[in-house]
Write a structure and sequence with these properties.
Elements: E1 5-8, H1 18-33, E2 37-42, H2 52-65, E3 71-74, H3 79-91, E4 95-98, H4 102-114, H5 130-138, E5 144-147, E6 153-158, E7 162-167, E8 175-177, H6 185-195, E9 200-204, H7 208-220, E10 227-231, E11 234-235, H8 244-247, H9 251-256, H10 261-270, H11 284-289, E12 300-301, H12 304-316, H13 320-323, H14 333-339, H15 348-357, H16 367-375, H17 386-398, H18 402-414, H19 422-429, H20 431-438
Parallel strand pairs: 1-2, 2-3, 9-10, 11-12
Antiparallel strand pairs: 4-5, 5-8, 6-7
The chain binds glutamic acid (GLU).
Length: 443
């Protein structure tokens, strides 16, 4: 197989959300797995709704997720290519002008429905002669342009959905060029996919309905037809469509909340497959296992709780080198390894750094016992075995054990009810601060 060329084609009319990032991710993983190219294509032909700030946000989100691109293109830079392809289709009789107003089309649609017939465009425009057409144009009507479908069954082997077929005889000829001369996405997408030699179109299931007509456009423009992989939609835990809130859950929101980017990619790569969702600390294991044959046809369940949980698990397994650049300089490897298992978000690490470095105001539950514990602190150097040796000694002298022994020590040493293993924290706190805290001094 020659290396694949794939593209992720968001419209810069809003922020990326989990649904479209799943398409981005699968494109990216597929390109990486087979040594291909990943193109970021900005579908910005809708001049009114496309914004440079959304383009910047999309690039920022993809970069944050680790999904860099090999080539970036903007549809608004490629209008001359669309004009040429339009002229090709007009010359071959596959694109024809239509002068109906929306009201006329709506009227005909209703009439067909009332007669119990499918509301398919009747190609009346194809029957107009030049005189009739000139007359309409003299009235000031500007044509829109429809693609003349070949009334045949179109088949493709979808890499996710399996064998697909659609009978184009039962479809309306799609409009590709609006009356103002602007192009519809379904057309510009095909022109770009041809020009960039896209081998696989990997996108959401909401585009399945365009695929039959698009295959005919590829053929009409003389190009090869790429392979298609349509990813099932995401649904919530109850199996319903994603709620408005979840459905619009943007990557920016998730980042704001401290979600780990690697948790987002780990979850989205496995969603809808039978493979277990496991935390990862790099994208490599996801690359090695990406496979459309493993993506089920049923809708994939997305849960915010599962993502939050996976995000925490991702931190718990994260090696120091993988996070070092994102941590403040005071957090060294020993501290990271001591606290990572207790983190919900990376920012919590700073909290524990402050607990270790102090000053904190200790909480004293039982001052005489704590003073005795201070007296018995061993001399340094300390390591992870220090805590056990010290507290075992205290069992004999104080008669305490279990929670009665450990809880007051933790409270005095950290001013917190719970937290990372004390065996790991104690050597980081050090003898001077530990002694002061046990004696009730802020340190
Ligand atoms: N701009 C389209 C979208 O955002 C791209 C669809 C496709 O990948 O073909 O849905």
């Amino acid at each position: 197989m020659p290396p694949p060329v794939v593209r992720f084609a968001p419209s810069p009319t809003g922020l990326l959300h989990v649904g479209n990032v799943r398409a981005a991710l699968l494109n990216w993983l597929y390109a990486r797995r087979y040594g291909g190219k990943f193109i970021l294509r900005l579908d910005d032909t809708d001049r009114q709704r496309s914004r440079p700030e959304f383009e910047a946000a999309i690039e920022g989100d993809l970069t944050w997720l680790g999904l860099g691109w090999d080539i970036k293109e903007r549809q608004s830079d490629r209008l001359a290519h669309y004009d040429r392809a339009r002229d090709t289709l007009v010359a071959s009789g596959r694109l024809y002008p239509c002068h109906e107003t929306p009201e006329e089309l709506e009227f005909r649609r209703r009439r067909l429905l009332a007669q119990g017939r499918p509301p398919v465009y009747d190609r009346a425009a194809l029957k107009l002669d030049d005189t009739a057409r000139r007359k309409l144009e003299a009235e000031g009507r500007k044509p829109h342009w429809r693609f003349k479908l070949d009334p045949q069954e179109v088949r493709w082997d979808d890499l996710v959905r399996g064998a697909q077929h659609v009978d184009e005889a039962s479809q309306s000829d799609p409009v590709l060029v609006r009356a103002d001369g602007s192009y519809l996405y379904s057309f510009t997408s095909v022109v770009d996919d041809l020009d960039f030699a896209i081998t696989h179109v990997i996108r959401g299931e909401d585009h399945v309905t365009n695929t039959g007509a698009q295959i005919q456009m590829f053929q009409a423009l003389g190009g090869p037809v790429p392979a298609f992989a349509h990813l099932p939609l995401l649904v919530d835990a109850a199996g319903g469509g994603l709620s408005k809130r979840t459905g619009s859950l943007s990557i920016a929101d998730l980042r704001e909340r401290g979600t780990e980017p690697m948790a987002i990619t780990a979850l989205l790569a496995r969603l809808g497959t039978a493979d277990p969702v496991e935390p990862v600390t790099s994208l490599e294991p996801l690359i090695d296992t990406v496979d459309f044959a493993r993506v089920g046809r049923a809708a994939a369940r997305f849960s915010e709780e599962e993502l939050a949980h996976l995000s925490a698990r991702t931190l718990h397994a994260m090696p120091y080198d993988a996070v070092r650049a994102r941590l403040s300089a005071e957090i060294n490897e020993a501290l990271w390894l001591a606290v990572r298992g207790n983190l919900t978000t990376l920012d919590d690490a700073m909290l524990w750094q402050q607990v270790v470095a102090g000053p904190i105001v200790p909480v004293l539950e039982d001052a005489p016992f704590l003073a005795e514990a201070a007296d018995k602190l061993p001399v340094e150097p300390w390591d992870e075995a220090t805590w056990k040796g010290w507290t075992s000694g205290l069992v004999g002298s104080s008669g305490r054990k279990g929670r009665a022994l450990f809880h007051p020590l933790r409270l005095a040493l950290t001013a917190r009810e719970t937290g990372p293993e004390m065996a790991k924290l104690l050597p980081l706190i050090g003898r001077a601060k530990a002694e002061a805290r046990l004696r009730g001094q802020a340190a």
